[in-house]
Amino acid sequence: MTWSAWLVETTTGAVGPQVPLAAGGSWEITLNGIESWTLSLPDRWLDTVPRRWWNKWQASALICHSCPLWPEDHPWVLGPVTSVPKASTVTSADKQKTVIDTLSGTGLREILRWRKITGVVDWTSNDALDALKNSVATFTGMSLGTIQEEIVRLAIARKAGRLPIRFDERWRQTGLAQDDGHTRNYEGWNVANNDADKLITELSEVIGGPDFMLRPGLDTRADDVWRAYATCLHGLEGQPWLPQERQIVWDATAPNGPVYGLDPAADAGGIRTRRWATGAGEGAGIAMQVSEDDGALADGMPLLEQSAAYQSVTNLPPLLDHAQADLAASSKPTVQLDLKVRGDHPQAVVGSWHVGDRVQVITPRLRDLDAGEHLMTIISARGGLDSEEIAVQLQED
Predict the structure, then answer these.
(1) Which residue among 37, 57, 172, 289 sits deepest, i.e. has the most Cβ atoms within 10 Å of its Cβ?
(2) Which residues contact 132 (CB under 8 A, 6 or more apart)?
(3) ∠31-63-149 over CA atoms, to 5°?
């Protein structure tokens, strides 16, 4: 088996017991989203392990891949246990019944859904609430990806907020023009809308907004303790895609190639011709912007409207960015390609590519794709821990 898993301390990343995978498990990764995973364990194995290594939220799982092409354990998914272990019975092909425990969870980013950005201060006591409500975290002259980093830094600087997240200074961009496009204010009173993950997502969704992922890694320290961590990766100003180390080519026309089972689709269900965006405020005083596809309407497309709320946005220029980004994303059919990847193939071994990478896919002629090369972004991947087959979804740029 080339997949393996360990239990991990969530706050420090210290790696604990290796998990015996009784019946495999599964994982799923989505670009700009939160991973999910399940581990199938021998019945009552968890009873032999101290609870802190599998307790909900306190513990995490690290899933790794290795194969002859890449023999060391390559981290693939890292994140907290989010459910109580569940016992069930599975029946094999030879009718043998086995009781297993299922442990499941998400990616580390899930914890950022439950962290509030209360300006630049943290709650200390109710006597200090006025100071907290008047606190404002202001980031200006930064790329949106760098602002995402700053949000994460604030989120993990809270009381008991420690997480094994690292930052790569190569992607930090400051000193940009201090206009509304590079400025964000997060006010302490707005706790209803200032979830860290929500704010990060909003920045990814503007026109040219950066992709954002927490990508797992693994190292050893002087004390010889394995430690898992996640690196904060994001796109750059003018280049929203995640940084990638190499150019990736997947040739679906080659015999015994790295990919197969191509299934393209063009989805027009999300087309809109007018997008509304609302921000902070109430009643007639609410911040509001609208973007409309004049060209499509002139060509005979009907008026198709949709609205989205961005309560943390107080200034109109960023709100217009949201409306325009929403319209651009829904102005034409989305061309996607589902395919299967051989995770142990020399041209597609797990770890040589990641969700968020751009791939040159060479295809034969298909219903919704012409023959030839297509530059596409990997937007999701999922697989089982008992197989090298990985289901990947790509989207055309």
Answers:
(1) 37
(2) 118, 119, 121, 122, 123, 188, 189
(3) 45
In order of 28, 80, 118, 262, 308, the CA distances from 315 in angstroms are: 36, 36, 19, 44, 16
- Per-residue confidence of the chain (397 residues) as pLDDT tens digits? 589 999 999 999 999 999 998 778 999 999 999 999 999 998 889 999 999 999 999 999 999 999 888 778 899 999 999 998 876 666 555 555 556 789 999 999 999 999 999 999 999 999 889 999 999 999 999 999 999 999 999 999 999 999 999 999 999 999 998 776 788 999 999 999 999 999 999 999 888 899 999 999 998 765 677 899 999 999 999 899 999 988 999 999 999 999 999 988 766 677 898 999 998 888 888 999 999 999 888 988 899 999 988 877 888 888 898 899 888 877 776 778 999 999 999 999 999 999 999 999 998 887 767 788 889 999 999 999 999 999 999 998 7
* Assigned token pair, 343: 């995770």
Q: Which helix (H) or strand (E) holds 325?
A: helix 316-329
Tell me which residue has tokens 């997949």.
Answer: 3
Q: Are 172 and 148 in contact (CB under 8 A)?
A: no
Q: What is the full DSSP assignment across 265-291?
A: EEE-TT--SEEEEE-S--GGGS-EEEE
Q: Is there a contact between 138 and 147 (Cβ–Cβ < 8 Å)? A: no
For residue 165, the cross-strand partners are 230
C-beta of residue 136 within 8 angstroms of C-beta of residue 118: no
Residues 6+ apart with CB under 8 A from 397: 358, 375, 376, 377
**3-class secondary structure, 89:** strand
Give the DSSP H or E segment for 36. Answer: strand 36-42
Close Cβ partners of 286 (under 8 Å, ≥ 6 residues apart)? 278, 279, 280
Residue 241 CA to residue 80 CA, distance in Å, equals: 26
